[in-house]
What we know:
Layout: E1 5-8, E2 23-26, E3 29-35, E4 38-39, E5 44-45, H1 50-67, E6 75-82, H2 88-98, E7 105-110, E8 120-127
Parallel strand pairs: 6-7
Antiparallel strand pairs: 1-2, 2-3, 3-8, 4-5, 6-8
Amino acid sequence: xxxxxxxxxxxxxxxxxxxxxxxxxxxxxxxxxxxxxxxxxxxxxxxxxxxxxxxxxxxxxxxxxxxxxxxxxxxxxxxxxxxxxxxxxxxxxxxxxxxxxxxxxxxxxxxxxxxxxxxxxxxxxxxx
Length: 128
């Protein structure tokens, strides 16, 4: 059995802020590390409400998917971490603009604290 494992990296998404890769492409899948609302051009967390932060996270994920040769249409599973579950409806509305048809499986949880004290973090598993 052949095993493939390649690191995926793009400057169109934030650089990893620890000992991990933006994504790993392995045996037909892409596993993307949790993304937070950091502007890749500045390296800073964007200002804004949950809708703006969710949109930035989804843009970062889309850039990594593209770098991996995949796309949002090939996403099979996401995990959404919210600082406050009260933001669920607004996050969901923004999320639905990207995942329109046949949305992926998803878990959404409230986390006590997220990296850089952001409001939302999302990770993804997609087909390569």
